[in-house]
Predict the structure.
Amino acid sequence: MNIKTVALTKEQYQAIIQAMKQGFTGCRPNERIATALTLEANLGLRISDIIHLRLADVVKDGDRYRLSIVEQKTKKARNFTVPLALYQYIRCYCLDHGIPSGAIIFPLSERAIQKQLKLVCDYLGYQGISTHSFRKFYATEIYKDSGYNIALVQQLLQHSSAAVTQRYIGIQQQEIEKAIEGHLMLEV
């Protein structure tokens, strides 16, 4: 785990994806990398798993879609529901770019994605951001949206303990101090 890598804010996520899709002086638009990072931020997978995805990996299971993969890093099986809107997003991307169902959607290297992301982050003035920031963004947003359910995030990320997940999403000393400050009851 890279401690220096920070989770994105919603604003940073949107700015990065927009800059990647539109391009800027000295950098052409790159929809492919923007889409790969969008999937990382919405599926919570590592970029090493995103670059091995095929549309055929997402299968219809009754009235929902499921993704079954074996994670590249941990070799753990991962099976989870993919929201319909996200499946349609992936499917439309594949159709628009003539990518067959069984083909790898993003035939890219992690290094190529990281290099492009660095260009965009330098342009936007962001530091401490890597491809892994998108997975941390996913974890942090799920954590907040679930009412701070650390066990849920631990399960989604397949971490071995809640303590690992807490370090991962960066429950900061500042938040701890704020909680202590907010708990003060000095007047009786």
Notes: The chain is about 55% helix and 10% strand. The first helix runs from residue 10 to 22. The CA atoms of residues 44 and 72 lie 14 Å apart.
